[in-house]
Amino acid sequence: MAGSIFSPLGSCSELEKANCHPLVCLLCHEPYQHPCLLDCYHNFCASCLRGRASDGRLRCPLCGHPSVVRGGTGLPPVDRLLQFLVDSSADSEEDVQCANCDRCCTKAELDTMYFCNTCGQPLCAPCREETHRARMFARHEIVSLSKRTKDIHKKCPLHEEPYIMFSTEKKSMLCINCFRDMQGESRAHCIDIETAYMQGCQRLDQAVMAVKELQTSTREAIVLLKAMIEEVRNSASEEEAAINSLFSRMQVQHEEKEKAFKEQLAHLASLLPTLQVHLVTCSAFLSSANKAEFLDLGYQLMERLQRIVKLPHRLRPAQTSKINSEYQAEFARCLEPLLMLSPRRSMVGSAGGIGPGITGTNMLPGGQCSKTLMVPSCPPTSDKMSTGPMMKKPTMHRYISTKVLLAEGRETPFAEHCRNYENTYRMLQTEIQGLKDQVQELHRDLTKHHSLIKSEIMSEILQKSLQMDVQIAAHYSAVEMMRSVFEEVWEETYQRVANEQEIYEAQLHDLLQLRQENSCLSTITKQIAPYVRSIAKVKERLEPRLQEPQEPKEEQAQMLLKICDNNEVEPRDASPGSNKGASASPREGFMPKDTSGDPSPKSKDCCRGQQKSGAESATPKELVP
Asked: Which of 118, 135, 212, 266 could form a disulfide with 3 if both were Cys (CB 3.0 to 4.6 A apart)?
């Protein structure tokens, strides 16, 4: 089962502390023995994976990702990079015994031990002076024991000549004979060992920065998912307390969403150890490998890091954390087309009155009501809809009256008008409700989740709001134009028209209220827009990877080359005290410096300043995961 190795996650720090050692198998919790690399870049011992393959596929015990197994062994290929680190760690931890006096040397005393390459035996300091003092041992090659382990790959195994070149085309080191045997076109891709080492360190540094960015995004995604899981739980508790009759359906939604989030969380949890292990692996590899070993295995490491970054990672929630339990309202909306009704807000009448804001004292002679429209705090944008004579408030009987009027089935002009009005109003109200839900979702993401909201989304909402304003104004004008037609009919039969007039005024009120809601929606959206842009700018400064490229890559490269050339020319025109630093090799501008007192070269700041603005740049051998 994917993720079954881990216990329930408490925090990202607990996960990193539990499985952060890059040389310990996650299954047997022992140092790696013949580590095998799966397609998901998880490593396990060969003995731990033996017998798990089925039909040529091996499912990862950590994340469940299937890996194709080739060959009759039923095991993935051996990870040479990790095997090198395991061997280097084992060599450094073993006690060394002097070949002459059998004196054991601990790990702390390795600097005092020597190794005779001619004899092939380790020697302590006293034995080196005593046994190799004679003239016959004068030509023996004696080196420090710690240096001996890093000089193994200095000679070509084919010609027994030292490596002097590196082929950027084949990613392999060359001796003088290998270089002579190459074709003329391939020789153009050969550079010296020092240059290849510096270029490799720079490329590895870029790959490590990409993995660090992915690690940061993964941690943020884990925190976001855990926050959304908590939000789902809180929402479930509120819904359970409020609507007991719908608790069972809500619980089903809660379990499904929590399961989906936990599956995605398990996927990201299995990704985080991989990123941690590879970052620690890079640091250990740079500190353990010499230049030859780096050029032998470094490009495999860089290629692996690039592939890990390019793998599809689900860093964003696949669904929202909102639990919907308004099934009664949904059922009522489904019945509206059958009953020819439109959803309205429930209106509560005042005590002793006919409707909200309408009392018996407001009645005029002749049975007509003097009803005043209470305008909300958000003013409408159209003067035509906000000015004019006294607007009349709809009563609480408006919805029932409309239903009864349409149920009579009379073919009257007002009944036909009501049918057309209901269809148009339902469409406008649905679109307004969609915009309201969208703004509410953006407001929640901005305040609770602190998510980055694109300004294009805000512009799109404002554009839709303006379009809705035009449509509502046009529909309001069309309904207003029908007043003269209906007034002629109302003069003939007042008993029937009294109900129709009340419905008509309610329709105008609904449109005005809808218009005002849209105006409030536009006002709120305009108020949120500056904060969105401000947060977006801060987010881009804190995370340069979110910035959109302003120039093509070729133009950026040319600009960097010009800056680097200018920085190399400036020291030549400086004072005589700085001539010593200017006469150094240009290659030293890219060499990693360990001395904290010397200022870092300008060329290094120019080439890496854009990637590491606001943070201290690390040398290739000081990578901190």
From this structure: 266
